[in-house]
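Researcher: Here's a chain I'd like modeled. Treat it as a single chain, no partners, no ligands.
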Amino acid sequence: MLSQLSKTDRMLLLEFVCAFAWADLQVQREERSFVRKLVKRLELSPEEAAQVSQWLELPPRPEGVDPNRIPRKHRQLFLETAREMIAADGVVDEAEAEGFALLEQLLGAEPMGQ
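Model: Modeled as a single isolated chain. Structure tokens:
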């Protein structure tokens, strides 16, 4: 599925992933590792990878992570990737769970575990 994403959609996905990494106000080592692996899988350009690195240092701007920007055909992929991100450090805190539940609701997806 990742290979079907346009350049714009790849960056949007990473913007959302980085926003979830910041949900608990700190990016854990395991979350950084998850993002680096995703950058490699998506074969980002050096410029794109540098932008993602910036998002790991300072969270993406809130207007950048508007769920309305997610293409309908990629909603499930975005949800699955966000779920993987919040589980990357082995701890899903309340802010991460709430953020994910809100994203699911906004995208009209089935709740986790159903």
